[in-house]
Amino acid sequence: MDWSSLSCSACVLIILFLPLGASDDRLVPGKPLSPGTTIVSDGGDFALGFFSSGSMPSNLYLSIWYNGIPELTMVWVANRETPVTNSTSSASTLSLTSTSNLVLSDGADSHVVWTTDVASSSSSSPVAVLLNTGNLVIQSPNGSRVWQSFDHPTDTFLPGMKMRIRYRTRAGERLVSWKDARDPSPGSFSYGCDPATSIQMFLWDGSRPVYRSTPWTGYQVKSEGEFLITNTSAIIISLAFVTNDEESYTMFSVSDGAWHTRFVLTFSGKLQFQSWNSSSSTWVVFGQWPRHKCNHYGYCGTHGYCDETMLPVPTCKCLDGFEPTSTEEWNNSEFSKGCRRKEALRCGDGFFALPGMKPLDRFVVVGNTSSKECATACGRNCSCMAYAYTNLSRSIANGDMTRCLVWVRELVDTGKLGTSTDSDTLYL
């Protein structure tokens, strides 16, 4: 990701049902949680309880939020599609069963609205604990975790969480936006790993891609940015990418003593990196994606690219050897028709190097090759449009230390990134 320093922004949540009391950091069988009580993590950073959205005061949601900051901000909602009823006659409850399951029951008729659905043998002493990371975990008597909320994210990505993709099923976690500022039910936007390749991230509106990250460049852990928050302190963000035989995942961490920090997918379709500023009582937005119109997926059309080095306003350009399909529309900032070749491609033509580029989408990965073999793999296929080759600092799978990407379809969604560490040389 390319990080940008942006103006401060607050994520406003109107809460009409506030907790009245607090308990410790855990839930045990026989002692359910009901509206008006909370569980607070041992370090005091997070709380679990019920809240009511401003749109429907009678609807209650089980949620985890930041504890101790004035702007009540949710990081996880269990029953976002099926709220329980705020009833004065019979209270809704969250209970932990002896089979190590959390069960949320509606107070109106006691039917089960949400459950963790853990397949576990009966135990006399399971416990559900809210950790100071914001992770709600169910633990067996021997301390092993049988379920955790970090494996079921809603709209927020916290330090220590994993955004993963499983190779066998091509399934993984996604952030899903709220419907609007007051309604936690699932919105139309989602963010997660690309199920086709597993080495890049997508932001979707329904099934339509809105934004695409650069493909993984081979790092295991890297410092992604240092953001000055006062004259004497800063937040340092580190990203990690891990692969094994079954899955790959990305996660992030922040420096010790940093403010409350998170990625959140807003209801308006923006992925934001935010930190809480206790001095100004606002969420500071240090990064946002997409950053601008030109950065949206495929904004410059096929064979066009967004030149992000053109400041202050990035603009669309045609790849070398191409020209606007419609010059009139292009000059009027209408780029959807993209670009076309000036001359027909002939099999056996050489390659032109374009350094500092964001690798295109719709690539084919050719593993365990040299730079020369990568060029040959593209050159001998008359349908191949471009290739990119990288020596990786960590293998993707099976000990392979290289990444050869080839494109045999129309070229879409690239950009000129300049000297960014996420950039690559595209051979066109």
From TrEMBL:
<dbReference type="Pfam" id="PF08276">
    <property type="entry name" value="PAN_2"/>
</dbReference>
<dbReference type="Pfam" id="PF01453">
    <property type="entry name" value="B_lectin"/>
</dbReference>
<feature type="signal peptide">
    <location>
        <begin position="1"/>
        <end position="23"/>
    </location>
</feature>
<protein>
    <recommendedName>
        <fullName>non-specific serine/threonine protein kinase</fullName>
        <ecNumber>2.7.11.1</ecNumber>
    </recommendedName>
</protein>
<keyword id="KW-1015">Disulfide bond</keyword>
<feature type="domain" description="Apple">
    <location>
        <begin position="347"/>
        <end position="428"/>
    </location>
</feature>
<dbReference type="Pfam" id="PF00954">
    <property type="entry name" value="S_locus_glycop"/>
</dbReference>
<keyword id="KW-0675">Receptor</keyword>
<dbReference type="GO" id="GO:0004674">
    <property type="term" value="F:protein serine/threonine kinase activity"/>
</dbReference>
<comment type="function">
    <text>Involved in sporophytic self-incompatibility system (the inability of flowering plants to achieve self-fertilization).</text>
</comment>
<dbReference type="InterPro" id="IPR000858">
    <property type="entry name" value="S_locus_glycoprot_dom"/>
</dbReference>
<dbReference type="InterPro" id="IPR001480">
    <property type="entry name" value="Bulb-type_lectin_dom"/>
</dbReference>
<dbReference type="InterPro" id="IPR035446">
    <property type="entry name" value="SLSG/EP1"/>
</dbReference>
<keyword id="KW-0732">Signal</keyword>
<dbReference type="InterPro" id="IPR036426">
    <property type="entry name" value="Bulb-type_lectin_dom_sf"/>
</dbReference>
<dbReference type="GO" id="GO:0051707">
    <property type="term" value="P:response to other organism"/>
</dbReference>
<dbReference type="GO" id="GO:0016020">
    <property type="term" value="C:membrane"/>
</dbReference>
<dbReference type="InterPro" id="IPR003609">
    <property type="entry name" value="Pan_app"/>
</dbReference>
<feature type="domain" description="Bulb-type lectin">
    <location>
        <begin position="24"/>
        <end position="151"/>
    </location>
</feature>
<dbReference type="GO" id="GO:0048544">
    <property type="term" value="P:recognition of pollen"/>
</dbReference>
